[in-house]
Amino acid sequence: MCLPLPLQVRVMKQVAFERKQRAVREAVAIGDQLLRSRRRELLAAAFTAWHIQVRGWHMDAAHIPAMTVRVVWLAPCNARCQHTASA
Predict the structure, then answer these.
(1) How far apart are CA 35 and CA 27, in angstroms?
(2) Measured between alpha carbons, how far is residue 35 from residues 3, 22, 28 in Å?
(3) 41-79: buried (b, 16+ CB within 10 Å) or exposed (e) per residue?
(4) Which string of DSSP letters, residue by residue, matches the chain?
(5) How far is CA 50 from the centre of its chain?
(6) What is the pLDDT at residue 75?
């Protein structure tokens, strides 16, 4: 059974429209997936940078007493040393 020409044209237009809509949905899904991936990468980079920064602060806080002990211990020695007194 053959459909009348206006009905065939309408069906072809509907099929073309559905294909375009499917392509748009796929493109949006790919874009959303790309955005999610980039957000995850950004979050991982921000967390890594924060972790390195916090670890650096902890390391500095742990080394400050040892560094001040060395400076306090070396300061009187440098004041009494003959090579610094003669210079």
Answers:
(1) 12
(2) 45, 20, 10
(3) eeeeeeeeeeeeeeeeeeeeeeeeeeeeeeeeeeeeeee
(4) -PPPHHHHHHHHHHHHHHHHHHHHHHHHHHHHHHHHHHHHHHHHHHHHHHHHHHHHHHHHHHHHHHHHHHHHHHHHHHHH-HHHHH-
(5) 10
(6) 47
State the Cα–Cα distance between residues 59 and 66, nearest whole angstrom.
11
What is the distance between the alpha carbons of residues 73 and 17, in angstroms, rounded to a whole number? 83
Task: Specify the pLDDT at position 66.
Answer: 54
pLDDT band at 51 (very low <50, low <70, confident <90, very high): confident
Q: Taking the model in full, what pTM does it have?
A: 0.50
**CA 31 from centroid of its chain's CA atoms:** 18
